[in-house]
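Q: Can I see a sequence and its folded structure?
A: Here is a first one.
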Amino acid sequence: MEYFPTFIVLLASFLLRSSFAFQPPNVIILFADDLGLGDLGCYGHPSSLTPNLDKIAVKGLRFTDFYSTSPACSPSRAALLTGRYQTRSGIYPGVFYPGSRGGLPLNETTIAEVLNPLGYATAIIGKWHLGVGPDRMYLPTNQGFDHYLGIPYSHDQGPCQNLTCFPPDIKCFGTCDQGVVTVPLFANDTIKQQPVSFPDLEKSYSDFATQFIMTNARRKQPFFLYYPSHHTHYPQFAGKVTTGKSHRGPFGDSLMEFDSTVGDIIQALVDSGVHNNTFVFFTADNGPELLRMSRGGNAGLLKCGKDTTYEGGMREPAIAYWPGRIQAGVTHALTSTLDLLPTVARLAGAKLPRVQLDGFDMSDILFRHGPSKREAMFYYPTGASEKHGPFAVRLGRFKAHYFTAGSIKSSTTPDQDCHETAHLKYHDTPLLFDLETDPSENYNLATPDHPEYKAVLQLIQDVKTDFEGGMVFGEAQVGKGTDPALEPCCAPQCTPKPTCCSCS
């Protein structure tokens, strides 16, 4: 018995040391814009120059069956940050514009807000696209982020004639919205520059990210950096270092510049000594805008692209990287941007929000290359509605389409199903595809020749019915419309608007 008190003391000492030894990991999420499954070198593109992403793909875990929740910008970003389908938070139908009245509701909990109570420093650089709103109430600094440097919506949502290539007198090809304010660059909730200088923008992001990493590493403070890039959204732009340097024209230059910033971020982790305690995750918001042809990206062998619920619109490249923790490999586990919030919470030891989450912790996949906890994926269109619900459902290897529709943003391909002329169509007997043997969705199995698949369709229908029974649509934020007075202007009292909104 005399050894028992000694054992207790030793155990207590061990537990105390273990608690102090735990260092919350830093978290970095890299989020490309309008990027297809076939756009990166590590996913098979023969001419893309993405050495930094390729390197972390080789050393990290590459996903083959990873999904965004929407084929468009705003809803997919809401889902990533909240771990909830965008329908719950009201980010439908469509995307936000400069004068949108709505935004991501402030009662939604973002990844940044999950990490805040643990003392994380949080920052976002790049494209927000979840609303500005009255008094700039929906900006990231009101959603858990300490710092924000970026553009609050897509860079084509405003006159972008200043989007110049090098030499400076050569304009980049592309069109942007007219009749609204020029594109502003925000620093926290203040406009730093309007219009923003696109050729200089990426260097500003890279410098900010590097400084943010180095500062917090020196302070020994855990950090969360969210980098939703403008690249490779049309019209593409790039700075002096990468313009004309790729083999894919302006799209390739834009992708190359994004990859270069990824390299700068990884190097900053190495230089600051926190490389081995940082979880890095890369993916994209939705598929390529095929309307732009070679300027719109590539979905690889997947069907259609942006703004459709075919695989090309929502199935994305994804890479998880953490030296010494995540072993190199490839996973075919069914996963989604929804899964990032619960995964990050688990890694950091944070509490989950007390709301209905749609994401699952990916730890078993990341550290043991195990199976996914996710059984199904629900495909909502850009214009989501309670009337139609999800257009398609994936359960295991099978995907059923209840509704299909093409889009102007996926036009120009030989496949007529992708075009805007392929109007919304309800399938009384859903189309059924085996995505393991037919990822291009060419061969419908729900035909009289395949009666054996009736049971599969019934199982998918049961899962869909159960899911929809628990889906509560939030108030439609995009549906609140727009007000020109809400367009961000660096000189609020100036006239005439919007042309007077210009500050260096």
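Q: Show me another, different protein.
A: A second, unrelated one:
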Amino acid sequence: MSEGSCSTFTNGDIIEILQPGHCHWVVYVGDGHIVHLKGRITGSGDDAVHGQPNVVEKTALESEAKGYKYKVNNIYPDLIPVPNDEVVKTALQMVGESKPYGFSCREFALELKYGCGNLDIIIRNLAPIPGELAIATSKGIQKIGSTVNSSSGIVGLVATKGVNLAGEGVTAMSGALGTAAGKGLAALGSMMSTGAQTLAPIVASKIEPTGYGTMLLSAAECVSSLGESLASRSAEAEETTAISVKQLGSSISSSSSAVGSAVATGLSWLGSASAAGAASLTSYLMSGTEQASTGAGEFPEKGDTDIQK
């Protein structure tokens, strides 16, 4: 007997089976089947733990329920769960695995559904936090998220204009940089040529008796030729530099829209995530507070939920 048929269950749901003396927690994997932790229970009450064998099994839900009531109970529905298809995939992959002594079926179900088996302990530790504080904290986070989200378009637009301005600046500088490169190269060549032609004869006349004067003059002619060659290429250097710098500026400018859009998208995502996180935080903290103040609810919490079959 159930409070809903299998056709109303969603793959990845946690199903609570109310068996005599305890609640058994299983994960629904479709087609009327469940994956759960099956093991002999040792002890009773708060001292009850899963003994050996403690093995993950796939079973027909009706077969495990044995006529007792069961229903969907995702335990902490306000928390962000693992995607349902991943829950089912992981559950089926774990069939046949053994779990350590004391690991309960509730912990197994929580680990599959939320990626953390010790959520009960975390919630109990958070229970003393006043509900007002939990709400205030989440509202603060939500406010930040809303502000960031609303500012995303403005920041993105500013980023676009900044990147575009930088590209235009580099493009505008291309002529000046090219001219400077050309002039620098021409000056270097002229200086080398003039220096070689002026200095070499003077030095050669003074060391001619040693036989090095002729060699020095030959070297000077080579240096002079090199200088003239560099000077003649100044126009080419000027043109090449200007083209390269202009291409860089154009590339930066053309990227401005993409950069602005990326910044805006990132800030919008951050804002949405902050706001969504705030809502989850409220539910997360409040659930602990409510559990601490109201007790176990419809089914027993500790003795009946932590000593699963």
